[in-house]
Amino acid sequence: MTLGLTHTTAELRETAHATVGRVAVSAWLVSLVLGVVAYLMLAFFYGPQHIEFVRGGA
Fold it and tell me: 30 is in which domain, residue-wise?
């Protein structure tokens, strides 16, 4: 967004914007997938009885 506001379209073609974008999207996807996997693992290993205890319901 910042590049789009500070550079013309001709200047953007000369930057590493596309490469950096691909790397950023890849890192974001890895982070998203690992976060979902971690959530599912924790939900599986620590069932609702543990979650209620953490919330103070027990």
Answer: 2-55
